Amino acid sequence: MGVMMQTFYWDCPREDGKEFQWWNYIHREIPGLAKAGFTSLWLPPVHKAANLFGPSMGYDPYDYYDLGEFDQKGSIPTWFGTRKELDQVIESAHKHGLSLIADMVLNHNSGADAQEVNPITGQQRWTVFNAKSGRFTRNWESFHPSMYESWDEMTFGDMPDLSHRNPYVYGELLKLARWLIEEVGFDGFRYDFVKGFAANTVTAIQEYRYMKNGAYHKPYGVAEYWDNASNTLHWVNEANESNHNPVDAFDFPLRELLKGLCDSYGFSLKTLVNGESVLKAQPYSTVTFVENHDLRDEGRPISNDKLLAYSYIMTHEGYPCVFWKDYFNYNLALRDTPNGIDALVSAHEKHAGGDTSILYLSDDLYIMQRGGHDAQRGLIYVLNNRGDDWRGEWVQTKWNNTSFQPVAWWGKHDRSRPADQTTATDGRGQFFAPARGYAVYALK
Hints:
Elements: E1 4-6, H1 12-15, H2 22-36, E2 40-42, E3 48-49, E4 61-63, H3 83-95, E5 99-104, E6 114-118, E7 123-128, H4 167-184, E8 188-191, H5 199-207, E9 210-212, E10 215-217, E11 220-223, H6 229-240, E12 248-250, H7 252-263, H8 269-274, H9 278-281, E13 286-289, H10 306-315, E14 319-323, H11 324-329, H12 341-351, E15 356-361, E16 365-370, E17 379-384, E18 391-396, E19 403-411, E20 421-422, E21 428-433, E22 437-443
Parallel strand pairs: 1-2, 1-14, 2-5, 5-8, 8-11, 11-12, 12-13, 13-14
Antiparallel strand pairs: 3-4, 6-7, 9-10, 15-16, 16-17, 17-22, 18-21, 19-20, 19-22
Helix pairs in contact: 2-3, 5-6, 7-10, 10-12
């Protein structure tokens, strides 16, 4: 499936001292990310934002067709850079075998040019949009409430919500998706705040017959539906019911379980393995993650031993997503060592194939097996939640008389290399991980 990199975090241009230079920063890092084994880059919203209180991350869309070309909303570039610099990112990513995922903010808009009265409510609202790109002009009929619908799924702050049932709006959103794929060069979409609009908009964008390099192109898609597993699956099933290009979903329930693993003393691994998650229900169409830009509020970020969480998502099914700030700012990449994200990405790409089988599970020790598929021959993963000593158990594997070597490991207090292991003629073997740590074993 590959490994995704979320190439931004909240206020990243300011925090990293790279305001209006973020595209150049990503561009410089692309060769290293490709070498590490990443397969896709999720970019922040590329359009010109309202920027009402200074430069914005883009989740307040103003002009979808201004990618850093027009002098409006305080600057020509977006907070991330110019259109030319974005084009360089896309060109370099494709040259290095990485696909590009565009962040689609389709629920709401902001920064209108003028107010007007909505005749349905009699209220004045900021709904007149005449952006300098000259494309997708909007007035009150483009927003809730409109003549086309009275039901608005959910609002986002006080920004006017687009009325997707208006045929003009619906058509313009499809035109936007087509432009991003066929002309700008993106390969897929991340759908922001899909709770705010009907699932059929996502279905239509996924199903559209795009042309790229002279052939039909099916875009990858993943939706942000922030809820429990049951409600998320309900939305996914609705979006994919009549969809030959199904959309994935981010696994927020699993992420909360991973936070428990990392931050809660005495957290039971039985809860992690058996808890409700999207991954558990549909393991091959789920994006797993440890952190993202929305988890910045007090109490939400993971504070301790985050590599435990990354080891879990990199060894199990799903499409794992790495957070830029974890990789670079918090130095969890640990390049050229077996102890960080880079080693886990390599293990995922080379070995994490086939179904998962639980070989041992207790409150503080978990051993599982990926059975292998094609070139990915499989692995043994050991997670030790006890803080005082190395732990291991005899387990029944699928491999007889087979030698294993550790390819990725980490311990809170001990980074020693786990010993190689060999299974007996009946497939039984003993596998270990350091205290408060993990080990990933691959077939020699």
